[in-house]
Amino acid sequence: MLAFRSITIISTMTILLLILSGKVSAVKTIIDQLGRHVTVPDQPLRVVSLAPSITEIVYALDQGHRLKGVTTYSDFPSEAIKLPKVGSYVHLDLEKIVALKPDLCIAIKDGNPRVIAQRLESLKIPVYAVDPNNLETVMKTVLEIGTLLNAKDQADRLVQMMDLRIQKVKSLVENVTHRPRVFFQIGISPIVSVGTHTFIHELIVIAGGTNLAAGPIPYPRFSREKVLSLSPEVIIITSMARSAAFEKVKAEWEKWPTMPAVRNQRIYLEDSNFFDRPSPRLVDGLELIIRMIHPELFKKIQ
Amino acid sequence: MNTKTPFLIKRVITASSLLILLLGFAMVLGISMGSTDSGIKDVFKNLMGIKEPESMLYTIIWQIRFPRVLLAALVGAALSLGGLVFQALLRNPLAEPYILGISGGSAIGAIIGILMGFSRFPGVSLTAFTGSILTLLLILAMSSGQTILKKDALLLSGVMVNAFCAAVIMFLVSMTQDSRLHNIIFWLMGDLSLVDMKHVGILAATLLPCFFLVFWLSNPMNLLLLGKEMAQTMGVNIKTVTFTLLVATSFMVSATVSYCGLVGFVGLVMPHLLRLVLGPDHRVLVPACVFGGGAYMVFCDLLARTLPKQGEMPAGVITAMIGAPLFIYLLKRTGK
Fold it and tell me: Around A80, how many Cα atoms within 13 Å sit in the side-chain half-sphere?
């Protein structure tokens, strides 16, 4: 009985949606970063961003007015905080997304559950998926979202700016002879660092450092002993929020003065949002990292 | 048994129709509430067809909330029935798929399936089924040797199997590096939020035959409760009946686990409550568990969706909070 009812409902909905989709006027079909064909409106006016990084990109392109919903932790820029929330990017609330009547959702491959994208599409809401996994693809993502939102000029300018700043950092470390050993701690308990295939590894290398945790595992775990044996010259600890716990971690490392990082007082605390979101702010992160790894380069300039 | 057939049919129909009414009420309530505020009034207007059907509310009600409510009803029905069958077969009032570790075994199978990149159906469902059968065999092997499955031996084996399963699950989760991890964790806690009509259809198609099969075997279950010799003289093929029921139950449990993770104690609460009201006749209890268990789960899911101000909690949290204290109470009472 119930199955029959559901079949009736599904078929009526399909017919209705077919009629509705006929009404949509200006659309274009594009291929997203996962190689899927997506039909999107020419002028998307009700965009829901499904990740904080996407929200940041949309605002950086001056297209914030198109956003009608963002995820819970979309906290940058501050305008984004006021927008309706559709759940966190790993646990999205389908009902809230649909209630915002989006004409486009921008999703991220790493994190957003695939089921959500499939369900949104079955409800005839186009989902454009991006898959940024290094600085280059972040810039590509910015350009693509620019095209998607009719902000090609802004996107070109933004990417040029990002590229310029990255080149500047690269030229600064060009003649550096010593590449300090960096331990980048993203998890406090357990101690977690970053492997080769992460944004942070790329940033460390560009900023003229050596990532002590380089390797095939993206987020390797470390024991305290292991970190001590690696004898890091710089320790960078990031956290979601600068809290008392954060300072405690620093104090914990300072018990081991044999480490060069402790001896030379080179333990830094930084906001993780600059490093783990594939958004234009990664370049800010890069400039922060080079100051931590090679402070001497900046003394010269002054 | 000693009840005359017309009287029995009347009792089955009365009990079932009352519980169907309850289920209907729960389902209407279920589609009336959600994370967006659209009051019951709007929903009723929509149900009566006053508003134009292409509205956003229509989509939310019929494509988001309705599949979820149906899923909850199916899961509740399957798990309650699972509890009822285990309690009858093992002659143990505390037996339940979650407590015995059958759900945990299915979850291990399902996680392995997910990590191997299988699709929800049939891949993950099959690995979950394999997991549940293996756990079932393990429990039966551990608690055999006793002539009758003693309450304590069985329960302890179940607890240990459950602990072992939990450890394996933790191992698998801690070994997982990628972004699927979050999804696995939410799913594990009993998440009903991500189903569409197609999946509900598949689940219904797998569960409904099992419901009928168990109902068909409800009289042999009654006779089994009288003791093995008694059942045998009444013409029950004990081995076939037990085997069929155990496999059907494991199948139902693993199907629900592969769709919405670990939802515990549902098989404890409803069978006990219904047995208290309706008496011990399984011919009445089986349909009652299907409808009552469905209604109970829809209510639990409704609480899970509406209690937190931000987001929602997994339905498994609610069922455990209600079920675990009841389990302790039952354990105390049967211990006397």
Answer: 26
CA B174 to mean position of chain CA atoms: 27
Rounded Cα distance between A8 and A16, Å, is 12
The answer, yes or no, to whether residue A280 has pLDDT greater than 90, is: yes
**ipTM beyond cut 0.95:** no
d(CA A123, CA A290) in angstroms, rounded, equals: 46
Q: Does A218 touch chain B (CB under 8 A)?
A: yes
Give the model confidence (pLDDT) of B263-312 as tens digits.
888 888 899 889 888 888 999 999 999 999 999 999 999 998 888 777 77
Look at residue A7 in the predicted model and tell me its pLDDT: 62
Chain A: closest CA distance from residue B269 (Å): 25
Question: With a CB-CB cutoff of 8 Å, which residues 65-124 of chain A face chain B?
Answer: 72, 85, 87-88, 90-91, 93-96, 98-99, 101, 110-111, 113, 115-116, 118-119, 122-123
Q: Do A90 and B179 touch (CB under 8 A)?
A: yes
Q: Do B311 and A218 touch (CB under 8 A)?
A: no
- The tokens describing A158, both together, are 């933004």
Task: Take residue B216 and report the two structure tokens written for it.
Answer: 């068909």
What single letter denotes the amino acid at residue A263?
R
CA distances from B182 to A12, A89, B233 (A): 35, 10, 54
Supply A45's token pair. 């006016």
Q: Do B92 and B125 form a contact (C-beta atoms < 8 A)?
A: no
Q: For the residues of B54-89, what is the DSSP string, one character each? A: TSHHHHIIIIIIHHHHHHHHHHHHHHHHHHHHHHHH
Could A12 and B310 be called an inter-chain contact, meaning their C-beta atoms sit closer than 8 Å? no
In the predicted structure, residue A100 carries a pLDDT above the cut 80: yes
Using an 8 Å Cβ cutoff, are B311 and A93 in contact?
yes
